[in-house]
Amino acid sequence: MSRFFRRGGDSSDESSSDEEEELLSGDDSGNEIIPKPSKRAVSGGSDESPDSDDSDDSDDSDEREEEKPIKKVSRFLKTAGSDSEDSDDESVKHIVKSAKDKRMEEMATSGDMIDQKLRINDWAAINTEFDKLTRLVLRQTNLSEPLPPVYLRVLSTLDDAVSKEKEGKKKMDANKARALNTVKHKVKKTIKEYEVQMKEYSADPEAFTAQYAASTQPEVLPKSKKPKKDRGDGEDGEVDAFTTVGKGGKTYSLGAADLYKNLAAIQEARGKKSTDRNEAMKILEKLRQVASTPYSRIRVLLALISSRFDYNTSVSTHMPIDIWTSAQNELNELVSILIEAPQYAVVEDFQIEYDDNVERVPSPSEPIIKVRGSVISYVDRLDEEFTRSLQNIDPHGTEYVDRLKDEKSLYETICRAEVHFEQSDPSSLARVMMRRLEHIYSKPTVVVTILERSTSEALASVLPPTFPSLNNLGTTTALVRALCVHLYQTEFSLLRTRAMLCHVYHHALQNDFHTARDLFLMSHLSETIHNADVATQILFNRAVVQLGLCAFRSGLIKEAQSTLQDIFTTQRVKELLAQGIHQQRYTVLTPEQEKAERARQLPFHMHINTELLEAAFLVSSMLVEIPHLASIDTEELKRKAISKPFRRLLDFADRQVFTGPPESTRDHIMQASKALQDGEWEKCRDLIQSIKIWSLMPEEAAVKEMLAKRIQEEGLRTYLFTYSAYYASLSLSLLATTFSLSVRTVTAIVSKMIWNEELAASLDQAAGTIVFHRVEPTRVQQLAQTLADRVSQMVEQNTKALDQKLGGGGGGGSSWNDRAAGDTGGESQERKGRSDRPRGGQRGSGGARGARGARFAQGLGGRVGGSTAIQA
C-alpha cells in the first residue's frame, strides 16, 4: 500500500505516545510489556527523512498489528479505565420511584403485553398477564385508591376480543379453547364487579383518565396550620374541618360533611392485611371530635371501639393497657349516649337495610333509630381482655397489683351496661348480669362492699330504684341471690348452670355449708356436668372444692373428706382448678393444646391455695382413716381404704427407716397420724397445729381449736378400737382424764359407738364404766363370712371387667364412688367382726345410705366423670 494513504490515527506523535505508555504500563502480574523494535530503530535511521518513516512500515503494517500485545492498565492507577466509561457512569442518573409509580409501570407493561398477545391469539399468556394485572389492581384498591384507566381499557379490549373469538373457537386446539373460556369468565365477572366504573370509562375515556390523574395527585398542604379548637371552647361549639395526609400521600378531608364517607372507607378496609390500624384509629379519633349529633357519635364510637379491639390480632397476647383504657372510656361514652337518648338503639340482629351515608333522625314513621352493632359483645371482649392481661402479667410484681386496680372501673362499666340493657334489651341483660356475678361471687365481703360503693357513687345519676345493689339489698349474700334468681329465669341453660355454681360457691365462702349443700344436691349438676363446656366444668370443680373447705371449717370432717376425695384421687388438682398445666409422664401436649390450656387458666388472685386444700384433705382423711384402720382386724379389710391418696402416703411413711423432724405439710400430717395410732393425741395435736398453712385459713384460731377437739375425740375412738380386746371393763372417768374430755362427752361418744354397733360393749351408768362383750363367731358363721368375702371379690372383679369391656369412662369412677360411699354407709357392718351376721354382702351394693352425709357423698358421685371430660 502506498505510503501516502496513511490512516488518521497513525501519526508519529500518537505512535510515540503509545510507545511511552506501553513502556510505562505493565500487565496484571507486574511484568512490563516490551514492544517489538521497529526496523527503523534497528537500521539506525533518523527522523529527518520523511520517507524513512513509512518505507518499512507499509509492508509489515498487518504483521505489526497482529504481533502488538493488548495494552493493559494497572487497576491501582488513579487514571485507570477509559474516558468513555467515566463519561458513561457520570451520565447515568439513578431515579428513585415510589411504590405507586412502580405499580403503575407494571400495570402499563402488563397491558401492553396483553395487546401483543392478542395479535397472535395466545390466550394462555393473556390469562397469565391478566391475573398479574388483577393482583396489581387489587393491591391498589386495598389502599383505597381509585381504579386505574389502564385496567378498564384492558377489560374493554378483552371483552371485544372474546366476543369476536366465539366464532372461531371450534377451530382452536383444546388448550387455547380452555384458556379462552377462563379469560372469558374472568372478564365477565370483573366487568360485573366494576360495572359503574366501566360505564363511566366507556362514556368518555379521556375525561375518566383526567379525573383519575387529578384524584391521584397528592394535595400540597400549606405550612401554616390553624390552631385546633377544643369542643365547646368556640362560639358555635363546632370544630373546623381539617385534612389529614395518610399513608402514601393520600389525603383525608375530615370534616362533618365527609364523616360518613370516611367511616365507610375505614369499614371497607377493616381486616385487610395492608390496613394501617394506627392510622385508622387516629382518623376515627379525629372524626369523634367532629361528630356532633347523637347518631354520628354512636356511629363513630362503634367503629372506634371495633378498631381498638382489632389492634391485637394474636390470641396468645393481650391488648396494650393504654388501648384497653381508651376502649373502656369510649364504651362508657357510648352507653351513656344510649341511656341519655333512648330514641337510638344499637341492635345486633337488625335486618332492615338503611343508607349508612345519610344522617338519620327520629320521625313519626321511625320513632326509634336502630343502628347495627352489639354493645354486649364489646362488654364481653373488654372483660376477656382484662382477664387475658392478668394471665400474661407476673402475679408477683407490682404491675399485677396496678392492673388489678382497673377491675373497679371495669365493674362500673358492666353496671352501666346493665342499666342500659334493663331499658332496651332484656336478652342481653342476662349476659351482662352473669359478667357482674362472676366479678363478685368469689370475693370477700369487704372487697364487694368497696366495688358496690364506688359504683353507686359513679352511677348515682343513672341508677334506677329497682337496680340490684348493695344499698338496696344490704348484704352481699342478698345481692348474689338477687342476681342468681334473675338468671335462673332466663332461657339460656348455660347461664342458669353457671349462676347455680356461683351461688353454691358464694354460700360455701360464707361458711353456710348446709344451704350450699342442699342447693348443690337439688340442682343435680353432678349428673350432667360432663356435657358442659370446659369453663363450666372448671367452675364446677371450684364450687366442689370450696364446698369441701367450708365443711372442713365448719367441723364436718366426714363431709369434707368425701367431698374432696374425688378431686385428689385424680392427682390433677391444679389442672382441674385451672391453676396450672399438668405434665403427664408419657403424654406431650401439642402447641395448640398447650396454648388452649394456658388460655383457660384463671388469674392468680382467683386461685384456691392448693397447699391449704391438700392440708384440709389429708387432715380430714387422717381423722376418718386412722379410727377405721384400728376398727378392723383382718389384712384383707385393711387393704380396702377409704382414702387411697392418704393410705398411699401413710404406707410410704411407714416404710421409711429413719424419720427426721417434719418439714413440709405432708410430713407434719404423716407423723401426726402415727402419733394418733399410738394413742399420743397430744403430740398429734401439736404437730397439726404447728402447720403454718393454717394462717391462710379464715378464722385461724377457731379452726385450730376445732381440730384439737376432733383429734381428742378420734383419739378416744382409736384407743377403744385398739385396746377393747384387752379390757373387761373400763372407767369413763379414766378415759375423760386421759383425753382431757368431760365425762359427758366421753359418755356420748361411747354411746354412739355402741348404737352404731361399732363397739361390742354396754354402758353401766350407775358405776360409770364400760363393760365389753366378747362374742366369738361359730364355725358356721366364720365359713359364711369367708364365703361372703369371696363373693364380694368376684363382684368387684366382674365390675372391673365390665368397665374395661365397655370402655372405662365415667362409669368406672361412678362405681368406685358407689363402693366408697358403701364403705362409709356400711361401715358398721364391716366393723362388726365380733357379731354373728355376715358383712361381705354390703360392699358390693354400697350399703345403706340413711345418713345425710352418705346421701351427700352419693350425690357427688359424678364428679370424676366431669373432671375427666376436662382432660378430653
UniProtKB/TrEMBL annotation:
Residues 604-777 form the PCI domain. SUPFAM superfamilies: Winged helix' DNA-binding domain. Gene3D superfamilies: Winged helix-like DNA-binding domain superfamily/Winged helix DNA-binding domain. Keywords: Cytoplasm, Initiation factor, Protein biosynthesis. GO terms for molecular function: RNA binding; translation initiation factor activity; translation initiation factor binding. Pfam families: eIF-3c_N (PF05470), EIF3CL_C (PF26569), PCI (PF01399). Residues 11-25, 48-65 have a biased composition (Acidic residues). GO terms for biological process: formation of cytoplasmic translation initiation complex. Transmembrane segments: none annotated. Component of the eukaryotic translation initiation factor 3 (eIF-3) complex, which is involved in protein synthesis of a specialized repertoire of mRNAs and, together with other initiation factors, stimulates binding of mRNA and methionyl-tRNAi to the 40S ribosome. The eIF-3 complex specifically targets and initiates translation of a subset of mRNAs involved in cell proliferation. This is Eukaryotic translation initiation factor 3 subunit C. The lineage of its organism: Eukaryota, Fungi, Dikarya, Basidiomycota, Agaricomycotina.
